[in-house]
Amino acid sequence: MSARPLALVVEDDLDQLALMRRYLDREGFDVFAAVDAETAISAFPEIRPSVAVLDLLLPGISGHECARLVRETFPECFLVISSVLDAAAYPAADAALPKPVVGASLHHLLDSIAR
Amino acid sequence: MSTGIVPASVERGWRKYFDDPTPLLKQAPTAVAVGLAAILVVFIPNFPVTRELALTAIAGIGLVAAVTVMAAVLTARGMHEGWVVLLIPMIDILGIGMLRVGTGGASSLFSSLVLLPVIWIAAAPGFRHVFIVGIFTSIALLMPYVLEPPTDPVSWLRGVIGPLVFATVGAIVNELSRLQRWRTVQAEALVAERTAALAENQTMIDQLQAAETQYKFLLDSFSSLWASINAQAVIATDHSGTIIAWNPGAVRLIGLSVDEALADVRVDRFFAPDALAPFADPSIERVAGDVAPGLRTLFDEADGGRSVEADIELTTAGGSSIPARVTVSPYQGTDGARRGYLLVMTDETKASEVSRMKDEFVGMISHELRTPLSAIIGFLDLLQNDPEQPLTDDQQDFVAVIERNAKRLLNLVGDLLFTAQAESGRFPLERVDADLRDIVGSALTSAGPHAQKEGVELIAELPDQPIRLLVDPGRLGQAVDNLLSNAIKFTPRGGRVTARLEARDGSVRICIADTGMGIPKDEQGMLFTRFFRASTATRNAVPGVGLGLTITRAIVLAHGGHMDMRSEEGVGTEFWFDLPVALRTEALRLGDLRTT
């Protein structure tokens, strides 16, 4: 199944992480899940995500900073911000996915990008 | 002659009897002289008396004695002036004339006595008395010739030359008296004038003293007031912004002593340049040596007669910065002239700390509530849409109920967060050019199922032409949703809810009217208060928490519009809001600048 594209999910809430893993799995992605930005950043050399779904409120390095680093390291990666915050407060990204996230909206979003 | 105005304090002694002599006093010299003459005539044996005319002499003495009695009577009656009084010397002259006739006629010793009444008459005011003197002396001197006409016609000249001399003396006396009277009047006027001036001075001094007392009182109150204002920095500057007054509050807030502050310090030293920058008006050219442009703008506003309020970061003497509310007003002197500006600065550190904590708290709470709700809704979604393990119909129903309630909770959290943001005056509006017909139309569409379930008819009254405005469609849709949802909730089955959109002069009105239960008059004022619920809502168990109208109004206000309602119990309720067609100039206003 290594032909499947990789999705990077950074999310400190484990339930939300599990949910996102399920959705992305259904959409045909392998998932690299990280509970904080530090874990994700340290894994950067080993991964090549085509989609990244980032939470904003994270312990330690913030989601904003993490989004900047993802953009910098993987310019091709489709960057999605998913947070409980107002969409107006999101940093620049390819898409915004305000919580609560349902499968249909994620599906709709990923449908529009080339895998 | 009256001396009434002369102050009583002037020492005059016995001379005062001559200031206003009585007829008796004036008559005294004549009476005494005539009396002495009578004694001389009686007791000097060889006194030349014309025997045949002795009776005439006695009659003359009698006449003088009679008018002396008359003088005494007039004196007793207080009559000091007038023609009756002047009769006395006139009769005196005649009496002395008769005495003279009896004591030798032209050669009589007593001819010169005539002078005494002559002076009296002549001293009376008016030149006519000089003629009276001439006439009466002429009669007196010619008396001897009445009984015994002279043989020498030249003797008749006595009746002319003598009276002429007397009249001349009379004229001199008359003129001297007139002069004296005039001087007296002058002196009296002067005295009166001085007295009045003195009294006026005294009044002035009294007034000055009263004013001084009042001024001292005011100064004392002001000084203690000035010294007691510790919570605010009160600073007065001249036109160029140089500090001319510095209160204890300023010492405390900025940390500069009064002496240091008054040593030619300009007030903009205590504002960070970038704190003032938002107020600066770039169209005004900067004058060299003037205060910072931002402060000049505030000063100019104050010059317009308004007091200006702004939130500006202060820089203390120690270099730390303090959030402060600054009020600038024109500083006027007691004469009404502009002397500069008054700045009142209030430390807002605590207030901004509280506001920051509140924001943090609300943010934290909404995050903490939304995260588990997101998980619930997400996993319900998984449950409903798992193709491998489809739910039974019953299970689908149950999950739908759970989901609906989770979404309600989520909306509530969103509303709470929104009202908190609206209260602190900042929530983001994303204005785009939109057709209001679409916004109202889609709100009607989404309210459709609700209305159908409640058995309420929805009516749309939308114009044919598009109405385009720069609005936040999401927020405005939320406002219309709220009003529609309220209208449907409060309208009994079979009623109507009408959504109307109309272009008005300079504004656009959106109106939601229902045929519902209405809102009691005394509750209408409370409608926009957070968490308020009308008694009709609680009585009829209409669900809700009382945030909808607060949110709706906040959205309308943020769009520069205003909102109102009218309602009649049992008839229906109408809510409407007007949005200005032209974009309000908030964006053009100077930062947080407010004029009061």
Secondary-structure blueprint:
The complex is a heterodimer of chains A (115) and B (596).
Chain A: E1 6-10, H1 14-26, E2 30-34, H2 37-43, E3 51-54, H3 63-73, E4 78-81, E5 95-96, H4 103-111
Parallel strand pairs in A: 1-2, 1-3, 3-4, 4-5
Chain B: H1 16-19, H2 23-43, H3 54-76, H4 83-102, H5 115-123, H6 128-147, H7 158-228, E1 232-237, E2 243-246, H8 248-254, H9 258-261, H10 273-276, H11 293-303, E3 308-315, E4 321-332, E5 338-347, H12 349-384, H13 393-423, E6 432-435, H14 436-454, E7 457-461, E8 468-471, H15 473-489, E9 496-504, E10 507-514, H16 535-539, H17 548-558, E11 562-568, E12 572-580, E13 594-595
Helix pairs in contact in B: 2-3, 2-4, 3-4, 4-5, 4-6, 5-6, 5-7, 6-7, 12-13, 13-17, 14-15, 15-17
Radius of gyration of chain B, in Å, reads 57 Å
Order of helices and strands of chain A: EHEHEHEEH
Helical content class of chain B: 40-55%
Roughly what fraction of the amino acids of chain B lie in strands? 5-15%
Which pair of chains forms the biggest interface, and how many residues does each contribute?
A-B, 17 and 18 residues
* String of helices and strands of chain B: HHHHHHHEEHHHHEEEHHEHEEHEEHHEEE
Described by the principal axes of the CA atoms, the overall outline of chain B is rod-shaped
Structure class of chain B: alpha+beta
Note the gap between the termini of chain B: 74 Å
Oligomer: heterodimer
Description of the structure:
The complex is a heterodimer of chains A (115) and B (596). Chain A contains four helices and five strands; from the N terminus they run E-H-E-H-E-H-E-E-H. Chain A is 35% helix and 17% strand. Chain A has one domain (6-111): Response regulator (Rossmann fold, 3-Layer(aba) Sandwich). In chain A, helix 3 (63-73) links the parallel strand 3 and strand 4 (78-81). With 115 residues, chain A is of the alpha/beta class. Chain A has a five-stranded parallel β-sheet, with helices on both faces. With 596 residues, chain B is α+β, with helices and mostly antiparallel strands. Chain B has four domains: 13-196, no CATH class; 229-347, PAS domain (Beta-Lactamase, 2-Layer Sandwich), CATH 3.30.450; 353-423; 432-588, Heat Shock Protein 90 (2-Layer Sandwich), CATH 3.30.565. Chain B is 53% helix and 15% strand. Chain B contains 17 helices and 13 strands. Chain B is rod-shaped. The two termini of chain B are 74 Å apart. Chain A binds chain B through residues 13, 15-16, 19, 22-23, 57, 84-86, 88, 99-104, and chain B through 366-367, 370-379, 381-382, 385, 410, 428, 430.
